């Protein structure tokens, strides 16, 4: 039984690490997905996770409007 107990303990530890890692990635995913939304869609309540259309031009607008190129 000690081997089974140790394997169960490691399995639970790995499951906890995966769950915690996934939970900590949610804000990052939300930020990346929100960067692809239109401004009006960001401000909608209740918030939606997926944009109705991906605004890849947001990145081009930021690049052009700031001094990244210098």
Low-confidence stretches: none
**Rounded average pLDDT:** 90
Q: Which class of secondary structure composition applies to the elements?
A: mainly alpha
Distance between the termini: 65 Å
Strand content: under 5%
SS elements, strand count = 0
**Rg from Cα:** 20 Å
Order of helices and strands: HHH
Main beta-sheet strand count, sense and barrel state: none
Number of helices: 3
| Relative helix content | 55-70%
**Overall outline:** elongated
In words, what does this structure look like?
The chain is elongated and about 65 Å long. Helix content is 66%, strand content 0%. The chain has 70 residues and is mainly alpha-helical. It has three helices and no strands.
Features:
70 residues, mainly alpha, 3 helices, 66% helix
Short description:
By secondary structure, this protein is an all-alpha fold.
Please outline the helices and strands.
Blueprint: H1 2-34, H2 39-42, H3 57-65
């Amino acid at each position: 039984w000690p081997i089974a107990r140790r394997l169960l303990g490691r399995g639970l530890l790995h499951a906890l690490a995966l769950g915690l890692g996934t939970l900590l990635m949610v804000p990052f995913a939300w930020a990346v997905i929100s960067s692809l939304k239109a401004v009006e869609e960001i401000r909608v309540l209740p918030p939606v996770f997926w944009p109705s259309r991906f605004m890849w031009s947001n990145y081009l607008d930021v690049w052009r409007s700031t001094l990244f190129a210098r």
